[in-house]
């Protein structure tokens, strides 16, 4: 999946998250069917946390629910840690050890130096 597809997917998740958050706010005012906090946390884990945080501020929704707030902040931390880890692994030469990547270590004899000096 190319970078453009990842950006479009994140944009879609964020738009959906904000729309769902606004709908939940309107349902809360009408005492209607609500979206579960688990669903919002799942959207946050999938990358929709910027829109959910923005929705919290703009709509003043789910700001008093402390367990939800802590869990949302945890999802943000996990997302950022994962993004930094992936960025570091992809941007350094060390990266992930893939089997088809040739080793940069010089070829060394497999026998120990002691055995070479003895003649074995």
Protein model, in words:
It is a single chain. This protein is mainly alpha-helical and 120 residues long. It is built from 4 helices and no strands. The longest helix is centred in the first third of the chain and has 28 residues, at 3-30.
In the predicted model, the low-confidence regions spanning at least 5 consecutive residues are none
Supply the number of structural domains.
1
What share of the residues does DSSP label as strand, in percent? under 5%
Cα separation of the termini: 53 Å
Q: What gross morphology would you assign?
A: elongated
The number of helices is: 4
Average pLDDT, to the nearest integer?
81
Element-level helix/strand string: HHHH
Oligomer: single chain
Keywords:
elongated; mainly alpha
Describe, in short, the structure shown.
The protein has 120 residues and is mainly alpha-helical.
List the helices and strands and how they pair.
Layout: H1 3-30, H2 37-59, H3 66-91, H4 113-118
Helix pairs in contact: 1-2, 2-3
